[in-house]
Amino acid sequence: MLLLPAVVLVAVSGAGAFAAGWLSRGHLEQAFPWLPPASRVWFELAPAALAVWILLGYCLRELFVWRSVSYVLTSRRVLRRERGLTRQDREMPLSLVRDVNVRQGFVQGMFRSGTIILTSGQSAQLTFADVPEARRFSQFVLDAIEELPDDEWGPGNEITDVGDESLPWELRED
Fold it and tell me: Tens of pLDDT along 94-107?
């Protein structure tokens, strides 16, 4: 998730410094001879200011977005929390998870991150993109599913003589 912002950071810093140095060595007069001498100092700093604007607007923003996302596994559910300027939670109870799928591209494999897709039996799907240590986290999810207690709604237990009102929402019939 931070690979592209890191490349942009290095490229923009280098290009901004090079352009500011090139313009300050007298090339500004050649490129823009019509500029008044008093404003040439400010135009020499323009590439550096543009580089700082790009770094703050893109790279720092991406870093904050990356830091605001956390993946949480509890004994009953798995969730993705995003705590930044806006708050957003996506969660799925572990009792509904029927399939855990991990996808990794080449670059993601090098950094051991990946995309985890949790699928329930009811065609609901929860996708976690760019999870660090994706294979390890998916193994934790599978271990947590195995450790779920068998309660009255668990696998292998029949529901008999129970009214619709006492059933969990996902088991009620319309």
Answer: 888 888 999 998 88
pLDDT at 162: 47
Amino acid at 169: W
Instruction: Report the alpha-carbon distance of residue 153 to residue 147 in Å, rounded.
Output: 15
Residue recorded with tokens 């708050």? 87
Structure tokens at 18: 């090079």
What is the model's pLDDT at position 136? Answer: 92
What values do phi and psi take at 55, rounded to 5?
-65, -45
Single pTM value for the model: 0.61
How many CB atoms lie under 10 A from the CB of residue 26? 9
104-109-111-115 Cα dihedral, nearest 10 degrees: 10
If DSSP codes are grouped into helix, strand and coil, which group holds residue 119?
Answer: strand
Give the CA count within 13 Å in the CB-facing half-sphere of 34: 0
* Torsion angle, alpha carbons of 91, 96, 99, 103, to 10: 0
